[in-house]
From TrEMBL, chain A:
The gene is cutL. One of its GO terms (molecular function) is oxidoreductase activity. This is Carbon monoxide dehydrogenase. Keywords: Molybdenum, Oxidoreductase. Its EC number is 1.2.99.2. SMART domains: Ald_Xan_dh_C (SM01008). Gene3D superfamilies: Aldehyde oxidase/xanthine dehydrogenase, a/b hammerhead, Aldehyde oxidase/xanthine dehydrogenase, molybdopterin binding domain. It comes from Sinorhizobium americanum. The keyword Transport does not apply. Coiled coil: none annotated. It comes from the Bacteria.
TrEMBL record, chain B:
InterPro entries: CO_DH_flav_C, CO_DH_flav_C_dom_sf, Diverse_Substr_Oxidored, FAD-bd_PCMH, FAD-bd_PCMH-like_sf, FAD-bd_PCMH_sub1, FAD-bd_PCMH_sub2, Mopterin_DH_FAD-bd. Signal peptide: none annotated. Gene3D superfamilies: 3.30.465.10, CO dehydrogenase flavoprotein, C-terminal domain (3.30.390.50), Uridine Diphospho-n-acetylenolpyruvylglucosamine Reductase, domain 2 (3.30.43.10). This is Carbon monoxide dehydrogenase. Keywords: FAD, Flavoprotein, Oxidoreductase. The lineage of its organism: Bacteria, Pseudomonadati, Pseudomonadota, Alphaproteobacteria, Hyphomicrobiales. Its EC number is 1.2.99.2. It comes from the Bacteria. GO terms for molecular function: FAD binding; oxidoreductase activity. Pfam families: FAD_binding_5 (PF00941).
Length: 781, 265
């Protein structure tokens, strides 16, 4: 390993521009003649549009035009779609209701876009948007996921009777029922997974530019996956064919999933640019972000877990209702199915599992993947159930887990996944040691002396990352393949540009991907540039989500580097008159092993391009690309322990320690991994203690600003104790598993297990606000 | 934000003139409440008259135990005033827990009490120390000043110039912050005068804004001790239920915060 190679704590290359205000975000983009868009949005959760009068708005100062959904429809712009087909257990396909980028007949949530105003300034566009008169006939709304399936409730889409999108199952129901009947003990629980607003630091933005000369579109957008955006916008929304559409996702300030999807705004701005003849920029404000960014989670489940007399789990039965909001967002269908039910085995050897999932419409903003996507829901459900079972069985939570750990690999679960490697006990032991688990009783007693209730809780999570083997996901309904692509271009004097389809929006790819190249070629990290986020520069890509960039994106890079190295060795061998099999690459040079013969890297590169002295038949140049399709998911896992103190008089929770022991496989940059874990833990703590989207019965969003939606602040989180104990992933060239979501997946149950332990009451829902904890901590009457 | 005209006044008289000339003017001090409201298009003043540069509104003066805080004193100036800290550290402590550092460096005591947000901190202190709100026209006792949610006794165009009070013998403020906004979910300011009179003012919890709690005052006047709180009934029916907390929980917080304030005073 070199100083900049794999495993080194290299400072992030991109931070220089981020920390000095030199980042280039979509809203920073400015092109000649550019105008500004503001969207007219529905103030009602459910209504029929009976008329739109923009006459007054069009006449206002600075206004270029006001465009509505009828015009969009007339121009043939298609519906927004969900790209993953799920079939109900009766074989019928999911019921996808029409989602128009600008509603032309019906609005279905507060914030649904109705018209776009284009003007010389944002202020003028906003003034004019207020002057657009939209007549609505109000319809009754439904927001409660438990209510929406009932007869007589408001119907959102004619395609979906009783608002049911699909009723899907996975696993062997009969085997589970038999095991439940024969069980020595059954633990039952009702689990709510609260709805979250994603809140990336940079709100969404887009700039649509139509060039009439070339009949070509350019779309700057806050996307985690520009090529996917281009594909979907051309294949489904008829904006333009791919060769006439360039998508650029420049610096993006966080996504957490919310920037995977194609939203109405980028489609409408591109279309509006053609209609008006001017480039059109839109930037979301924070209230709009709360109203229109796809939310996360929002599950209600019941669980039954069966145990034999030896406390071994014999079966798990789960029934879940997942709220998908008013429309099916791009990946909304796979989140509560193949990213959720497939993880219900957790770290445990469970012979039989059955999950039934019903997804439903409500008059709320669409729900889709949010950091962890399905896996936090599975982990929370399972780890709350394990903790509850341990309490019911009078066992230590660690012992119950140890009794049920999977210990041999590969392990086939009853819910599709085949775990390739792991050592769950190692993480458990590491976490318990780091947390001084055995010293807890003394700490609890000491806290009691101060009038505080102290509790400890754990969570042993597993997740599936490295999305995903294309053929496998195709057989499960995915509309796309989930490979990744990389191209390595060695410049004429030897510096390197890597084009990757893995978009970076906070993850630090510009550093970690460069570390891989530096490691392989022995070159200084500053001679390596990572290029991403532009469909004109990067050959192809599927983007960044599901902790896939390391396992899939870097694996593609490793494959491309194999090709570059092979060709470089051929060239160098020829120059040194040696056999290419004797050439090694070391410290920026190509050397003949065991001799002092050596050609510097830059000289070999120059030779590749001067082409004066190449081996016969070899093409000039040195640029190689590769596609990598993973052979399996990767399975990061770990154990989190949280210790809290509750003030029984106020219900305030203070996290006194939080320990994370993770198995991420091989690690490229420990500092970046720790940063990812810290951020994930903060998000998980946010979900468990603070965050929760609330709509009222009429569909108004009550938590539409930071006055009412509580985000974690620095003093809400403790100083984390993190460590890793790694089993390399056998299924990719780098042995990496992925670390981007683990923190958010594993932490909520550890925290809720700790609070319920402290107060001696298991009935607690997230977010565990002071009032809820206070109420739950009251002595029973 | 709608378009507006900005004016910087250098004296009270000039500010009053500027306001008189404006179609629908508003004074602005720190702008920490007014500007966000304007950005959300919930307020649309034609003119803003900036009070922060008027010398008469600035400064904190302490003479013996009598205190005068200029209306344009920022939360930060109040929090860090050594003179005030020597006689009434509770008010410094309160100011030091408003918002975040940026808010504290811009927001002012005059703006805060003129705004009378039902979850703001200062109104509790003003009531508990029996402050006098000094304006360009008159003096108003705190008890008469805070009239309803976001409502005060201020008349059209009236400017708060300062607040005056005698530092109590003992005082403390305890705030249970709303986890989202960090305004007071319930905040209690207790003050005990030399003659033994106790005032207990509660913010964040009342359905009609800041209020004094007679029961707690009586109990603490009789027995200035945290234990005196235990047997006082706090009626939840006058208290606020909202997205963040129920009246019953707030009633509990009123007692707990009072007890802790007495212990801290
Ligand atoms: C992020 C954030 C967090 C906050 N947290 C808290 C908190 O925890 N606790 C808390 O109490 N407050 C909090 N605030 C509010 C803050 O304290 C404000 O500064 C204060 O409420 C208003 O003071 P200002 O000087 O900014 O007034 P401005 O916003 O300038 O004005 C507010 C109102 O008062 C009027 N006004 C201003 N000065 C005068 C005057 N001298 N005479 C007559 N009328 C006047 C204005 O016309 C306007 O109507 C927070 C604000 C923000 C933005």
């Amino acid at each position: 390993m070199g100083v900049d190679g794999i495993g080194a704590r290299v400072a992030r290359k991109e931070d220089r521009r981020f920390l000095t205000g030199k980042g280039r975000y979509t809203d920073d983009m400015s092109v000649p003649g550019m105008k500004y868009a503001v969207f007219v949005r529905s103030p009602h959760a459910h209504a029929t549009i009976t008329g739109i009068d923009a006459t007054a708005a069009r006449a206002m100062p600075g206004v270029i035009d006001v465009l509505d959904g009828k015009q969009l429809l007339a121009d043939g712009i298609g519906n927004l779609i969900c790209g993953w087909m799920i079939h109900s257990k009766d074989g019928s396909p999911m019921k996808m209701g029409a989602w128009r980028p600008l509603a032309d007949k019906t609005v279905r949530y507060v914030g649904d876009a109705v018209a776009i105003v284009v003007a010389d300034s944002v202020a003028e566009a906003r003034d004019a948007a207020e002057a657009v008169v939209v007549d609505y006939d109000l319809l009754p709304a439904v927001t409660d996921p438990l209510q929406t399936l009932a007869d007589g409730e408001p119907q959102l889409h004619p395609e979906a009777p009783n608002n049911l999108i699909f009723d899907w199952e996975l696993g062997d129901a009969a085997a589970v029922d038999r095991a439940l009947a024969a069980a020595a003990h059954v633990t039952e629980l009702k689990i709510y997974n609260n709805r979250l607003a994603p809140n990336p630091m940079e709100p969404r933005a887009t700039l649509g530019i139509y060039d009439a000369g070339d009949d070509h579109y350019t779309c700057y957008t806050t996307s985690q996956n520009p090529h996917l955006a281009r594909l979907v916008m051309s294949a489904f929304y008829n904006v333009a064919p791919e060769n006439k559409l360039r998508v650029i996702a420049p610096d993006v300030g966080g996504g957490f999933g919310s920037k995977i999807y194609i939203y109405p705004e980028e489609i409408v701005c591109l279309w509006a640019s053609k209609r008006t003849g001017v480039p059109v920029k839109w930037t979301c404000d924070r209230t709009e972000a709360f109203l229109t960014d796809a939310h996360g989670r929002d599950h209600v489940s019941t669980v039954k877990m069966a145990f034999d007399a030896g406390h071994r789990i014999t079966a798990l039965k789960v029934d879940t209702i997942a709220n998908l909001g008013a429309y099916m967002s791009l990946f909304s269908s796979c989140v509560p199915t193949y990213l959720y039910a497939t993880l219900l085995s957790g770290q445990y050897d469970i012979p039989a599992i059955h999950a039934n999932v019903r997804t439903i419409y409500t008059n709320t903003v669409p729900v889709d993947a949010y950091r962890g996507a399905g896996r936090p829901e599975a982990t929370y459900l399972l780890e709350r159930t394990m903790e509850t079972a341990a309490r019911e069985l009078g066992m230590s939570p660690a012992e119950l887990r140890r009794t049920n750990f999977i210990r041999s690999f590969p392990h086939q679960t009853p819910v599709i996944m085949n775990y390739d490697a792991g050592d769950y006990e190692a993480s458990l032991n590491a976490a318990m040691t780091a947390a001084d688990w055995n010293g807890f009783a003394a700490r609890k007693a000491e806290a009691e002396g101060r009038g505080m209730k102290r509790g400890i809780g754990m969570s042993c999570y597993i997740e599936a990352c490295g999305l995903a083997p294309s053929a496998a996901v195709g057989s499960l309904g995915a509309g796309v393949g989930l490979w990744e692509s990389a191209e390595v271009k060695v410049n004429m004097a030897g510096t390197i540009e890597v084009m990757t389809g893995s978009h970076s929006h906070g993850q630090g790819h510009e550093t970690t991907f460069a570390q891989l190249v530096a490691d392989r070629l022995g070159l200084p990290i500053d001679s390596i540039n990572i290029v991403h986020g532009d469909t004109d520069k990067v050959q192809m890509g599927m983007g960044t989500y599901g902790s896939r960039s390391g396992a899939v994106g870097m694996s593609a890079l490793a494959k491309a580097l194999d090709k570059v190295e092979a060709k470089a060795k051929k060239i160098a061998a020829h120059l040194m008159e040696a056999d290419e099999s004797d050439v090694v690459i070391e410290d920026g040079a190509l050397k003949v092993a065991g001799t002092d013969k050596s050609v510097p890297w830059f000289q070999m590169a120059l030779a590749a391009y001067t082409a004066h002295n190449l081996p016969p038949g070899l093409e000039p140049g040195l640029k190689e690309s590769a596609f990598y399709d993973p052979a399996n998911f990767t399975f990061p896992a770990g154990c989190y322990i949280c210790e809290v103190e509750i003030d029984p008089e106020t219900g305030r929770t203070q996290i006194v320690q939080f320990v994370a022991a993770d198995d991420f496989g091989n690690i490229i940059n420990p500092m970046i991994v720790e940063g990812q874990v810290h951020g994930g833990l903060a998000q998980g703590i946010g979900q468990a203690l603070l965050e929760g989207v609330r709509y009222d019965d009429s569909g108004q969003l009550l938590t539409a600003s930071y006055l009412d939606y509580a985000m974690p602040r620095a003093d809400d989180v403790p100083s984390f104790t993190v460590s890793t104990s790694n089993t390399p992933c056998p299924n990719n060239p780098l042995g990496v598993k992925g670390c981007g979501e683990a923190g958010a997946i594993g932490s909520p149950p550890a925290l809720i297990n700790a609070i319920t332990d402290a107060i001696g009451n298991n009935q607690l829902t997230m977010p565990a606000t002071p009032e809820k904890v206070w109420a739950a901590a009251q002595p029973a009457h | 934000m709608y378009e507006t005209n900005y004016h910087r006044a250098s004296s009270i008289q000039e500010a009053v003139q500027m306001m008189g000339a404006a179609a629908e003017g508003k004074y602005v001090s720190g702008g920490m409440t007014l500007i966000p409201t304007m950005r959300l298009r919930l307020a649309a003043p034609s003119d803003l008259v900036d009070l922060r540069h008027i010398t008469e509104l600035k400064g904190i003066a302490v003479d013996g135990r009598s205190v005068r805080i200029g209306a344009a004193a920022t939360h930060e100036e109040v929090a860090t005033s050594a003179e005030l800290g020597a006689v009434c550290p509770a008010v410094c402590d309160l100011a030091g827990h408003i918002g975040d550092p940026a808010v504290r460096h811009m927001g002012t005591i005059g703006g805060s009490i003129a705004n009378n947000d039902p979850a703001a901190d200062y109104p509790a202190a003003m009531l508990a120390v029996d402050a006098v709100i000094v304006t360009d026209r008159r003096e108003i006792k705190a008890g008469d000043f805070f009239t309803d949610l976001f409502e005060t006794a201020l008349e059209e165009g009236e400017i708060i110039t300062a607040v005056r009070f005698d530092a109590p013998a003992k005082a403390a403020y305890q705030k249970f912050a709303n986890p989202a906004s960090r305004y007071a979910m319930t905040g209690v300011f207790v003050a005990r005068r030399n003659d033994g009179e106790v005032r207990v003012a509660v913010t964040g919890a009342g359905s009609n804004g800041v209020f004094r709690h007679q029961g707690l005052e009586a109990a603490l006047s009789a027995n200035w001790s945290p234990d005196a709180v235990a047997n006082v009934a706090v009626d939840a029916s006058d208290l606020l239920t909202d997205l963040h907390a129920s009246a019953a929980y707030r009633a509990n917080l009123v007692k707990v915060m009072t007890k802790r304030a007495v212990a801290a005073a």
